[in-house]
User: What shape does this take?
Amino acid sequence: MTTVVNGVNVQALLEAREALKSAPEAAQFTWRANSKWQKGVHSTTTIQGFFGLGQEQNHKTEAVFDADHPEVFAAEDNGITPIEYLLVGLASCLTAGVASVAQNRGIQLRSVEATVEGAHDIRGILGVDSDVRNGFNDVKVTFTIDADASQQDIEALVAQSQKRSAVFDALTNPTNVTVEVA
Amino acid sequence: MTTVVNGVNVQALLEAREALKSAPEAAQFTWRANSKWQKGVHSTTTIQGFFGLGQEQNHKTEAVFDADHPEVFAAEDNGITPIEYLLVGLASCLTAGVASVAQNRGIQLRSVEATVEGAHDIRGILGVDSDVRNGFNDVKVTFTIDADASQQDIEALVAQSQKRSAVFDALTNPTNVTVEVA
Assistant: This one.
């Protein structure tokens, strides 16, 4: 078999899978974000620490994200809108999955691009019509993949990525979200 | 009534609400993201254009987001993980809502902070146990708000923000997501 180089350490992931079979408590992660209101609908959200493998962990660097509304919503557009962050998460999660599955199946990738479109009827959030939901009506992801593989094998890569995607699951199935005031 | 200055143009939003009552087609937005695989599970996602109010629109600047896995997943940590982007979206959406509702109710905000925690059993995505879901087990948001208002009024602000939040809806209710290969 030709060695494929997609840059994913699949061996380490397979070892982690084996190790976590007998240590489910190590698999319990907590991801965290801290958000500060700036002005208007502009906020900055910081991410650095998380919990996993039984202890506190840190990303190498602190990441800061601006969110705002665009000028057509009478705001200053100091960042993308909150709902667009969901598309960033979805695109990047499915792409990471494609790379991981390709590595595991010995498929050399040359390029992977994804375009994501989220249809959103803003009458919900504006309170125009209570029958219109607040979130996306639907989301469509289109992959363009150049790889040493048949179209059928490429479609199977994408299907497997979907099956194991954290963000795909989080968007297509309900999650309990609790909101409290300290 | 004292004039409150939270920086949200509520008048424009109320006018938009009125205008969209008779022009539902203008309320149909499409948000877009374009993602490119870099190496391993590292990707960069770009956001600039979107469709709304019947025509193509643009954010003032193009925004680029790196996503990767942390070093504990044998990756290079060139960015936050895809699932963490959902927390950025949730925190910023609820915070924008708090500011908008406060402005509408004449409540002066001094500071708003939100911490978001997403519990995630990674045995799902690693394929250790098919009974474990891929996404979050649950998400908890805690607001700390300093404002010219009673605790009860502050709690009501947060409750109303939740009720109109696009991202809160997208995470707590299912959305149809279609994934295709071009």
Summary: The beta strands of chain B are 28-39, 42-52, 55-67, 109-121, 138-147, 176-181.
